[in-house]
Amino acid sequence: MVRNIVVLGGNSHPQMTENVCNFLGIPACDRILSKFSGGESRCEIKDSVRGKDVYIIQSGSGHVNDNLIDLCIMISACKIGSAKRVTAVVPLFPYSRQPDWPYNKAGAPLSRSSESSSKKDYTFESVPPTPRPGGPRSAGLSNGVNGLTEKLSKNSENGHREVNGDSLPKRSDTLSSVGSNGVYPDLTKRSFTTHDYENQTNINGFRPKPGYKQWVAQAGTLVADLLTCAGADHIITMDLHDPQYQGFFDIPVDNLYGKFLLQNYIQTHIPDYKEAVIVSPDAGGAKRATAIADSLNMDFALIHKERRPIKFTDHRNASMMLVGDIANRVCILVDDLADTANTITRAAKLLKREGATRVYALITHGVFSGDSIARVNASAIDKVVVTNSVPQEEHRRLCPKLEVLDISPVFAEAIRRVHHGESISVLFQLA
Ligand SMILES: O=P(O)(O)OC[C@H]1O[C@H](OP(=O)(O)OP(=O)(O)O)[C@H](O)[C@@H]1O
Description:
By secondary structure, the protein is an alpha/beta fold. 26% of the residues lie in helices and 19% in strands. It contains eleven helices and 14 strands. Strand 13, helix 10 (393-398) and strand 14 (402-405) form a beta-alpha-beta unit. The chain is globular. Bound molecules: 1-O-pyrophosphono-5-O-phosphono-alpha-D-ribofuranose (PRP). 1-O-pyrophosphono-5-O-phosphono-alpha-D-ribofuranose is lined by residues 97, 241, 281-282, 284-285, 315, 335-343.
């Protein structure tokens, strides 16, 4: 039994809270975590947390946004209750796929525009124009904001209004500008958002250039700030989609690896695993997959997944290309996340077409949203192995191909070590 430690569970993963408490030999903290009739969260910590080392377990699954707010409120409640230290234990970290620079992946601003400045106009000091009227002016591009406002003014109500950059709506003033008929209202009079560029149909005759980036919220940064502001002193998570996301926090973040559990599964459950090929279903996961291939001295292949979305959320519009020889071999797809399961099911189809005899998919976070379980059931994948970083009971009931690895012991041990001030680097070497 570990003393002076409190484990408080959110509503996202009760089974994980129970397992961790069992490993540590302590009861879960008594609390009320419910909703008022208006939908707001209600949190009361019933046990004393004064001077205690508190670990709050909440995963980024289910009602992700509700669970995130609940986590912030629980952290805050513990701080107000004079907890000595509060650690958020978040097996699947919400919004960790969205820490990017606030543009989408469609190319550099104006980079593919036929009408953009010729290369000779670019200098090292050039600043890309912000894609909105009234925004900061381009320092080095002649066709920046000024060019845009000119176009907008030409297209506004027969040019009746003069466009003055200062009088145009600011981004912060705007919410939505697309009418129900899909036609954009007068940009010089009404609100305007950069999402207007996403639809790219017609803004009063103005058609934004292809490659012109859209403004995407820095949700990952915001979430990191929210947790820190709420009072979190430390974060423990697993397999962040972008490990660099740790740098968004100014508190310690321990990013545990699911790799060792997956590796162990390969060694103990896949016959003649040395003859199999580890496959990364996209370039983004290559480092993760090669780490396993290198550790187990296995061959490696890569699927290059190129997403050329028509819309930002269009996942289906992607082409895939295999690099490596997998004919007549068992293939083991390794990835951090299966959400819609499009990536792994399409990869499995490609692998089978190229001659794979059997396809495993080993995934850390099995989110399986929407109809993804049905997609996996109907796919060429023979077995899917996920951890229980998010609840898997329902998925397992619906998917006979699914096998679940329990990561509660890893988190329990991490909590014990952090509490006692011991190194947790040993957890990065477990096999
Ligand atoms: O089940 P799905 O809905 O297909 O999503 C899963 C994929 O999405 C993530 O990568 P992402 O496409 O964000 O690209 P990246 O690895 O290049 O960041 C993740 O690493 C998976 O490969």
